[in-house]
Design goal:
The protein is mostly helical. It is built from 3 helices and no strands.
Amino acid sequence: MNSNDPTYSPLRDVAQSPEATARYLADVQRVLLDIGKNLETLAIETRVHLRKTHVEGDRWYHAKLRAMPVEKALGTVLKNLNSLTEGLEKSAYKRRAHDETVMNTAKDRKEKEIERLRKKNPPTLQAAPNPPQQGAQTQNSGYGGPTSIYGLGKRESA
């Protein structure tokens, strides 16, 4: 691609490769985790400062109550940041899974087509063997014997 091309987008190349996407998302995640560390430090320092700030006539818990909305807002930002970094990691895995699915789709379709044809045209069954002649001795294959334990007669059960 040419950077002078008006339709050029550097992220287009990244989006076309799962490895490049994973690297890019890992870099973004690394930056966000660094920002998260700074935000955690800021939240701690803000908490300490706001809870130390007392006004004349305050009871011991008033400063804490005034600080709670600010602490909650910073906590929400940190929670959202953690969700964002988890989402980036999940996106990289899903991107790779998508490519693997695309690569396996043609093979799966061929297998389904073969299975469909096999079901549509089942293999022909061989004819049953000819019944033995009346004069020849027959071996008992287990079929045609007594159907009940009371019909065994003098035979023993297995």
